[in-house]
């Protein structure tokens, strides 16, 4: 069974009490009209009980809106358990008719022959015309469409606006024009102005998604269509050297502080008030706000050069927080596709789901969600409108082995931080390692 790791952009994690309850009871089933089991169509997704209830309500509304539609039995798990369960079901020939997918695992399930190509349905039973242009191709792999975006997010620089203002005496930078040099200078200024008490920027050198942004800004991708590395190793050395320079000047935290907070958001320098900015996903804004009250802002990432207002920000893309896929061998293909279309496009589903899945992938849905949103959610919604206007689509999803590559990327950045390797040596070693993983 493949080894799974945490998604770069998962749905909000359930509470500790919820996780313990799920672990004690096993898979939680909550089917429309009285629970799972029996004849009908199976649907599976990850999330917390609140999201599950909303999705169940939406699925129920779908069934009520069409005479003769089969009963839908739904099941959900937290992120970590979901993939183990889905892998087991797929291996046993029991793939759910409708399932939530992630771009990181899409090639794996396509390779197993578990997913139905959706191309014959596009434009008719499955409408994507109103979905953000940069997100429409997210579920494509090797020339065919195997998934449709359910919710979106994007890379951003989360800034603690009050902390920045209090330390430096000035407001946010012009994020529609700033550069990596501007970011480095601002981060250093924060550290100097705070007498070393605050770091300007959390260490993002080990974030493979941030490095992908860096690569795309220079006109390349991490991988080509043959799953080979498509960027020069010198670019990785330059990236690792940038973050080592930030650490050395105090603009980013020392490596031991960063290592202590890996996968522990509550211990991160920004949540502790020790850093003013961090690279993150839009959904992480709410997570930060739940742990520390502050005036958070979402900034477009810096670019390689200053850009004029209205120009795309090089490298930025709309990411799929989650996707919907249909099982290859389902007996309910047409109905499952109709359900996907309903969840993506129907006003009734939109009202029931709100932003529980993540940011809606349609501008009109975001506008309606904004009307009743809290200030933190509104920051994410407004930012995704900017991303829709300033981004360029990804040409492909990740290759097999990508989750392993992402997990290991942070280790090589830490090696540089702790002085175990030079940026050049770490870049060479990771490049060789990555080539072996995706080439295996």
TrEMBL record:
Top-level taxon in the UniProt lineage: Bacteria
A Pfam short name: SBP_bac_8
PROSITE patterns: PROKAR_LIPOPROTEIN (PS51257), TAT (PS51318)
Annotated source species: Streptomyces zhaozhouensis
Signal peptide per UniProt: none
The protein, known as: Carbohydrate ABC transporter substrate-binding protein, CUT1 family
